[in-house]
Amino acid sequence: MNQYFIRRERCPCCHSRDVRTLRRAPYADGPLKDYLDRFYAVVGGVDHRFLAGSDFVANVCADCGAVYQEEIPNGELMHQLYDVWMEPRKVLALEEAGYDLQHYVYLGRQVEMVLRHFGVLPGGLTFLDFGMGWGHWCRFAKAYGCRTFGLESSPVRIEYARGQGIEVLSYAELAQHRFHMINAEQVFEHLTDPLDTLTMLRERLHPQGLIWIGVPDGADILARIEKWNWSAPKGSAESLNPLAPLEHLNCFTPDALVTMAARAGLRPVELNIPRRKAKWPWWRRVTNRPPPVAPAGTSGYFTPLA
């Protein structure tokens, strides 16, 4: 492990130390190196000097079943990854080019269904988009009349969101607010310590508040790791994208997500929320399982325990 990585000594999703290594491979390994070069080519490119001497290490937790990367980027490497190797404006252009009308309809209907769940006028609700990215969800919630805030670590994305009229909070400012709804779409797979983060967010919820956690579907990740097919396209049956090196540091099964939520003082709650089209494979619904279950595959709404 080189100077640009740190090692996690316990499961980041439940803090158990009962873990074992599933796979270890140097970042200089042919298939892994080829994957990184291919994946980041369209938005910038990888500087392999930052990865020299380090390994991709996938561990599994015996207690909650989460799979996670043991060695993860430190702050300097995170900056390289998200601000240099992935040029932000190129990322924005690709994201917006990939959005169709159904994407925007979904965002609006999701906000609408959350409003129906609370049964009050939008002006009486306060929402937070945690890890807001470019602020798309914030703009829809704000358009409905909700008092809406965003939180983001990327200076480029913060500047862009503020230019769109989004009020952006810092971590320090979170303590001054309580939220009826916290949106965390495609965020928890990227966090160094997701359990600690979720515990902090639960403290910022109203007693009957909701937090949405949307993560890539890791239900069959053990089989994918066994096949070790780094050439499988994203979204395919063998794709390892749910555990993408350097980015998707945590990979959740439905049980792992529910376990993490329980450790943070939250329980799953079922809402009649519109589902995305099948091209978002992590949105598969779990059925015929006794409670508690994650309400929608490895994604779902959670509320504080009574």
Class of the largest domain, according to the CATH hierarchy?
Alpha Beta
Number of strands: 13
Strand order of the largest sheet: 8-7-6-9-10-13-12
Determine the strand fraction and express it as a percent band: 15-25%
List the uncertain runs: 276-296
Shape: globular
CATH superfamily (homologous) name of the largest domain: Vaccinia Virus protein VP39
The helix content is: 25-40%
The CATH topology of the largest domain: Rossmann fold
Largest sheet: number of strands, sense, barrel closure: 7 strands, mixed
Structure characterization notes:
By secondary structure, the protein is an alpha/beta fold. It has 2 domains: 5-93 and 221-243, no CATH class; 98-215 and 252-304, Rossmann fold. 32% of the residues lie in helices and 22% in strands. The protein contains 10 helices and 13 strands. The strands form 3 sheets. Strands 8-7-6-9-10-13-12 form a 7-stranded mixed β-sheet, with helices on both faces. The radius of gyration is 19 Å and the shape is globular. The model is unreliable at 276-296 (pLDDT under 50).
Fold topology:
Layout: E1 5-7, E2 19-26, H1 30-40, E3 55-61, E4 67-69, E5 71-73, H2 75-85, H3 88-98, H4 101-118, E6 126-130, H5 136-143, E7 147-151, H6 155-163, E8 167-169, H7 171-174, E9 179-185, H8 194-203, E10 205-214, H9 221-227, E11 250-251, H10 254-263, E12 266-269, E13 299-304
